[in-house]
Amino acid sequence: MILVTGGAGFIGGNFVLDWLAQSDEPVINVDKLTYAGNLDTLASLKDDARHIFVRADIGDKALISELLAKYQPRAVINFAAESHVDRSISGPGEFIQTNVVGTFNLLESVRGYWSDLAAEAKAAFRFLHVSTDEVYGSLASDDPAFTETKTYEPNSPYSASKAASDHLVRAWHHTYGLPVLTTNCSNNYGPYHFPEKLIPLVILNALAGKALPIYGDGQQIRDWLYVKDHCSAIRRVLEAGVVGETYNVGGWNEKPNLDVVHTICQMLDDRQPRSDGKAYAEQITYVTDRPGHDKRYAIDAGKLERELGWKPAETFETGIAKTVDWYLTHQDWVQNVTSGAYQNWIEQQYS
Ligand code: NAD
Ligand code: DAU
Q1: Whether pTM exceeds 0.90
Q2: How far, in Å, CA of 95 to CA of 100, rounded?
Q3: Do you know which InterPro entries this protein is assigned to (predicted)?
Q4: Which domains are assigned to the chain?
Q5: What DSSP state is assigned to residue 340?
Q6: Cα separation of 261 and 146, whole Å?
Q7: Atom of ligand 2 nearest to the CA of 198
Q8: Is the beta carbon of 99 within 6 A of some atom in ligand 1?
Q9: Nearest ligand, CA of residue 212?
Q10: Are 80 and 56 in contact (CB under 8 A)?
């Protein structure tokens, strides 16, 4: 079996669902269930014996060590993190705690478990760390896309904490021989995306008749990847990645934020027109920019494509259509995640 951390979040949740749709290998899913963790995402696995959910903090060394000893996973995939840049600006402490200290404790638990494995299991074991392109910093418009050898230049508390975790993972390989793999992916989008992030926020605000907040001039560029393509890349790296290597994951889909928002508005105009007949784009509102806002990210996924034969299945056009349709047809999930604490965040961030 495999052990996944953060499997009640956006990418981890999609990963667990996809994994069990394609394989009977059980998953132990360890998640603290912060505001971003949501068991509704995993509702279809409620009576599925292949999914074992444990509410726990990756920083709880004793409990994680106990789980490893009990279930003897052949791999650990670490999705657990605080992941929202704006939250890292208003409250960086949790990011240091989970992304840095939590990853350190997790590595120590895993090292203890792995050290005691018999030779064959020890050689086959993998620790796959899921990271981000934001560790590489920001690109000028004519810079080449990030390759795996790009220097780390993180600019936000979030990206700095992820960079620190990547360095710890690297060091645990070089110093202790822990068989690690690291993936650095660009912006994901798709089903079960918590609506504090741009794409789901815009879809839901549009439908609710609310402002569509564009930070600054909206010309910042992000490189979008449909979440299921990220999941397939992780499966491929786990299966065939070279121990100690890092792999960039991306879909060659660079878009300015404003274009993304206009695309979503157009799709909603076609699928669920406003009752007053006006365009959803009229709800676009320019708001104060994010402090230290990175201008452009772009991932060169050539290594993963060349060496492991991975390719994304979706273009931005097909992926965004699936995403908009998913939100239109999953209002129950939306209602559950947008109650309570979510409202407090939106009030604090956009008032
Ligand atoms: P998310 O915020 O949706 O989910 C994070 C999950 O981790 C939640 O279920 C949360 O409850 C859990 N968690 C948080 N702290 C924990 C702790 N201390 N112990 C156990 N569980 C904890 O995040 P996401 O968007 O799914 O991102 C998953 C991973 O992928 C993160 O490491 C993130 O840095 C990375 N990543 C995200 C993107 C993206 O576009 N979303 C892109 C590249 C990489
Ligand atoms: O690049 C990968 C990263 O992508 C991941 O590591 C992070 O976990 C993930 O949250 C994401 O970070 P971003 O900051 O790029 O995503 P976000 O959806 O928050 O913002 C996307 C862009 O849209 C960014 O340039 C900021 C802008 N934005 C965002 C929000 C929430 C707005 O203009 N208005 C908004 O209200």
Answers
A1: yes
A2: 7
A3: dTDP_Gluc_deHydtase, NAD(P)-bd_dom, NAD(P)-bd_dom_sf
A4: 2-190+225-251+293-313 (3.40.50.720)
A5: T
A6: 24
A7: 18
A8: no
A9: 2
A10: no
Ligand nearest to the CA of 350: 2
Q: Which ligand lies nearest to the CA atom of residue 58 in the structure?
A: 1
Overall average pLDDT of the 113-124 stretch: 98
Please, which contacts does 285-291 make with residues 24 or more away whose CB atoms are closer than 8 Å? 285/211, 285/212, 285/213, 285/214, 286/214, 286/216, 286/217, 286/218, 287/211, 287/213, 287/214, 287/215, 287/350, 288/215, 288/216, 289/215, 289/216, 290/85, 290/86, 290/89, 290/215, 290/216, 291/89
What is the number of the ligand 1 atom nearest to the C-alpha of 59? 18
- HSE (side-chain half, CA atoms, 13 Å) at 118: 2
214 Cβ below 6 A of ligand 2: yes
pLDDT at 129: 99
pLDDT tens across 272-323, in order?
999 999 999 999 999 999 999 999 999 999 999 999 999 999 999 999 999 9
- Which active-site residues does the annotation give? 133-134, 158
Please say whether the beta carbons of 337 and 195 come within 8 A: yes
Q: Is the CB of 31 under 6 A from ligand 1?
A: yes
Residue 29: Cβ within 10 Å count = 26
| DSSP label of 133 | G
Q: Where are the beta strands (DSSP E) in the chain?
A: 2-5, 27-31, 51-55, 75-78, 126-132, 180-185, 187-189, 212-215, 221-226, 246-249, 254-256, 284-287
Q: For residue 202, which atom of ligand 2 is closest to its CA?
A: 36
pLDDT for 303 equals 98
Question: Which residue's CA lies nearest to atom 14 of ligand 1?
Answer: 81
Ligand 1: residue of 29, 32, 83 to mutate (most ligand atoms within 8 A of CB) is 83
